[in-house]
Amino acid sequence: MSFRFLVNGAPAEVEVPGMRRLLDVLREDLGLTGTKEGCGEGECGACSVILDGQVVDACLVPICQVDGHIVRTVEGLSLAARERGALDALQEAFLERGAAQCGICTPGMLMAARAYLDAGGGAEEGPIREAIAGNLCRCTGYTKIVDAIAATASGEA
Amino acid sequence: MPAEPPIDVPGHLFEAYELLTASHAAGIPMTPIAGGTDLMVQITGELREPPARMLDLSRIDALRGIALEQGSLVLGARTTYAEIRRSALCREHLPALVEAAATIGAAQIQNRGTIGGNVANASPAGDTLPILLAADATILVGGQRGEREIAVGAFFTGYRATALAPDELILQVRLPLPKGRQIRFRKVGTRRAQAISKVVMAVAWRETGGTGWSDVRVALGSVAATPIRAAATEGVLEGALPTPEVADRAAEALAGELSPIDDVRSTAEYRRTVAARVLHRLLREAGGW
Amino acid sequence: MPTRTLTPVIDRGTAGALVVTPGEVAAGRATASPLRREGPAKLTGLAKYTDDLVFPGAWYGLTIRSTEAHARLVAIEPDPDVDWLSVVIATAADIPGDNVVSLIKDDQPMLVPVGGEIQHHAEPVALLAAPDRETLRRLKGHIRLVTEPLPPVFDPEASDHEFSRIQILHGDLDAGFEAADVILEGEYRVGHQEQLYIENQAMIAVPGDDGGIVIHGSMQCPYYIHNAMKRALKLSSVEARVIQEETGGGFGGKEEYPSIVALHAALLALKAKRPIRMIYDRHEDLAATTKRHPAIIRHRTGVKRDGTLVAQDIEVVMDGGAYCTLTPVVLSRGAIHAAGPYRCPNVRIRARATRTNTPPNGAFRGFGAPQTQFAAETHLNRLAERLRLSPAELRHRNAYRLGDTTPTGQVLRESVAAEEVLRMATDFSGFEAGRAATARRAAERIGSGTIPAGALWTGTDRTASGIGLALAWHGAGFTGSGEVRLASVASVELAADGRIRILTAQTEMGQGTKTIFPQMVAAELGVPIDSVDYAAQDTAEVPDSGPTVASRTAMVVGGLCIQAARRLKAEVEVRHAGQPFHEVFREDAASHGATRIDQRFEPYPGAEFDEETYTGDAYPAFGWAAAVASVDVDLDTGEVTVNDVVAVDDVGKVIHRVMCEGQVEGGTLQAVGYATIEEIKLEDGRYLNDRLATYLIPTSLDAPRIHTVLVEAPYSGVPHGAKGVGELPMDVAAPAVVAAIHDAVGAWITELPATPEKILAALHGAPTRGRAVGPGPDDAGAAAA
Question: In this complex, is the C-beta atom of A105 within 8 Å of any C-beta atom belonging to chain B?
Answer without folding.
Answer: no
